[in-house]
Design goal:
α1 (about 15-35) packs antiparallel against α2. With about 70 residues, the protein is mostly helical. It has a domain at about 20-60. It contains two helices and no strands. It has helices at about 15-35, 40-70.
């Protein structure tokens, strides 16, 4: 899963949103199942979840901009 924060050639489009949303949801599920002794894993998954949420927001923002642009 490409991420523009990690790769300058990555692009995010509306068609990518379902994959990122599913990834975020699965990560959130795993976070809820971790015990308190799994601090390192919790930190890693939280970072991964935040990354997915950021990408989803970027896709939503770009989609909103595209829909609001005037046709040339």
């Amino acid at each position: 899963m490409c991420d523009s924060a990690r790769c300058p050639q990555a692009t995010h489009h509306g068609v990518h949103r379902p994959v990122w949303a599913e990834h975020a949801e699965r990560t959130k599920t795993f976070l809820g199942q971790l015990g308190t002794t799994r601090a390192t894993e919790h930190e890693r998954l939280t970072s991964d979840y935040n990354r997915a949420q950021r990408v989803i927001t970027e896709i939503d923002d770009a989609t909103t901009l595209d829909e609001n642009e005037d046709p040339i």
